[in-house]
Amino acid sequence: MSKLPNGWIQLALGEAIQIQKGKKPIGLGPKGKDRLIPYINISAFETKQVEEYAPEQNVPRCEESDTLLVWDGARAGLAGRGIGGFIGSTLARLTSDLAAPSYIYYFIHSNYRYLNTNTKGVGIPHINPIVLAELKFPLPPSGEQTRIIIKLEELLADLDSGVAELKAAQKKLTQYRQSLLKTAVEGTLTQEWRDCNPPKESGAQLLERILVERRARWEAKQLAKFAQRGVTPPNNWQKKYPEPIRPDITELPQLPEGWVWTSVDQLIFDSSYGTSVKCSYEGDGIPVLRIPNISRGSIDLHDIKFSTTKIAFDEKDFLTIGDVLIIRTNGSIGLVGRAAAVIDELPSQYYFASYLLRLRCTDNFSVHRWLLTALSAHSGRKWLEARAASSAGQHNISLSTLLTMPIPLPPQEEQLRALNRLDEAYDSITQQEDAILLLVKQCAAQRQNILRAAFSGQLVPQDANDEPASVLLDRIRIQRVEKAKQPKPRKTKKKESTMVTRKLVDVLTEAGDWLPAQEAFNRCGINDGAQTEVIETLYAELRQLDKANRLAVEAVADVQGRKIYDKLKLLVS
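User: That's the sequence. What structure does it adopt?
Assistant: Structure tokens below.
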């Protein structure tokens, strides 16, 4: 950092802020008369929408003037404005008696990348408290802090407004791209052309040609296997040909004249999973395409990793024109099924990673490009997402499921006409998307430049009349010492109780309706640290009510049928 202006000082961030980790409160549920305190978990932090509330209790609480910091997870180090309420265990609140709240927020915000890339922990990353505490923190005079905040909010508001407009333009282009795909796979894009150009070959006839080619390739592959083993093909070996899966068209819409419904399996002659071999940027093996290389329907070769061990492949195993790569598994459902086709010859031999599937079409037809169109259209995305299985936070589309996907197949001439129309439109859309993306990146860089200027004393002029930050620091240090000398309030020891504060029957009578079991227990006085005797007293009453047929118990489940909790209700005797 360059030399700071007069009146500024630099100190470790740990001396300027106080950190309090969150803790999940008990008794969470919908907002009610006994649950009024918002619970700020990671979801509420991201969306600013509170879904759960808690009763009053002694757990860390955030104020709107505080800075919230994501402490655990992939986005550890992300800063946000405070939200009033109890904070969850994956968040921490930052406060300061030296710097203005907004000054702290903007400083942490400007250091997100550094904090996020210097975490600790295996598996789930966590903020490294030493890294956070040792951040070099430039402290200006209090008056200048105020001027910096005002200027920052002015400049960043203008910048954010511009970025919002760019994002809106991006969304419109995405919607336009989808509308084009929809008209293509439904036939409206080429309706006028179709009316004036009766097909020489129907979609059904094209499918027959594809199926003949599919079988011929299977037979050639089998003969090659026999020759490799040095054996004579057995009689009737051709009868072992696995017929492709036919599409289920019972609920599919009617297609334009000359079109036919087919399946993915009918349109391809081979399919395979990728390699799970370890790859890195420094590897000296073959280049292996990954999920980042699937971009807007094309193969993006800008971010390539290489296998770290030698892989034995035949020439035919490498990617070639006619191949379609599909993302089969990802934590984001929106990425599952995203595809790219190999349209042009690749500059060298490439393979693909295990998170991808390859569908192999012949390059004698335009099928691979049409298949990509159908997979990318809204109807295709809807079909794929509805059939993706979910487990441990990952979504997956299996090859066996993918092969059954119905695909509308027009005559080849009409296919080519539609694909050419799409290419023409895509050229313009892609140019606009690239221009917007560049502007968004420039805005991000400008944001960092503004923040850098703010924390180096170059954003606003200094005022010689401001109290130097060193004087402020000395005064705060004295105040901290004096505060530490003050006797802490004595904690009165709670008497151990062998009785429940309130009887369950009284709590349920007062509720008059269903009550979550945990909430009922809380109202009875059963909280963390309750004595065993107290708990036993409550359970004894619970058994008595149940035995007397005065208690209704009902399980509450989520949308997948998994039990979340029990709820209780007192029956009228």
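The longest helix spans residues 142-186.
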